[in-house]
Amino acid sequence: MTPALLIIGIVSYNRFVSQKQLIKDAWANIDTELRRRYDLIPNLVETVRGYASHERETFENVTRARAAATAATGSPASQAAAEGPLVAALRQLLAVAEAYPDLKANQNFLALQSELANTEDRLQTSRRFYNTNVRDYNQRVKQFPSVLLASMFGFKEEEFFEIEEAMREAGAPQVSFGGEGPGVTFGGPPVPPVAPPAAPDKSETPPAPPGTPDA
């Protein structure tokens, strides 16, 4: 091998190493934002539960989806697959909150919504950065002549952090300050708010106790 080819090979190899490190760092940013989201969810659930304790199924769905997403520590593809059900469950939880004006005005709830929205924005930015680095790296793995070096030293294609259709439709939450109070939605088809349980009609005359003579 000529000195020129040796230098080119060294430069190409070092670039592969640098790209792998960029991908690793970019994934660490995604993981950080996902963990921040997971940490916010229990407090959000408990805040909503204080106003809508009867919505047990909704709370259980969110808790299950969070547990599944937290446990999905494998490949980016498996992690992305676990995020769709979690976003769908969060949308339903926030739909429940829409039926309770007092909850929507609760300062703790508003703070959690705001932090959740900020986390989603950072997550989407991190995801785009990660996928851009993966795309550039994968192109080099498949292109000639770098494909020869990649094959020689075991540089293989990396997975994208792809989002399932349910999550893509949801998108990042959007804070809305219209109506009776601020709210967060995840885009896509609107989820109808869940109506609180109806109060008993006090206008009806209660039945007379047994043994009471008619008037």
Can you summarize the main beta sheet? 2 strands, antiparallel
Q: In total, how many beta strands?
A: 2
Structural class: mainly alpha
Helix content percent band: 55-70%
pLDDT averaged over residues: 80
* Low-confidence regions: 165-200, 211-215
Cα-to-Cα separation, first versus last residue: 114 Å
Summed up, the helix count is: 7
Over the alpha carbons, how many angstroms does the gyration radius reach?
A: 26 Å
Oligomer: single chain
Strand content: under 5%
Gross geometry: elongated
Query: How do the helices and strands follow one another from N- to C-terminus?
Result: HHHHHHHEE
Read across the widest sheet, the strand sequence of neighbours is 1-2
Structure commentary:
The structure is a single chain. The protein has 215 residues and is mainly α. Helices cover 65% and strands 3% of the residues. The chain has helices at residues 3-49, 56-71, 76-97, 101-104, 107-142, 146-153, 165-170; strands at 174-176, 183-185. A two-stranded antiparallel ribbon has the order 1-2. Strand 1 and strand 2 form a beta hairpin. Helix 1 (3-49) packs antiparallel against helix 2, helix 1 crosses helix 6 (146-153) and helix 2 runs antiparallel to helix 3. The longest helix has 47 residues, at 3-49. It starts with a helix and ends in a 30-residue tail after the last strand. Residues 165-200 and 211-215 have low confidence and may be disordered.
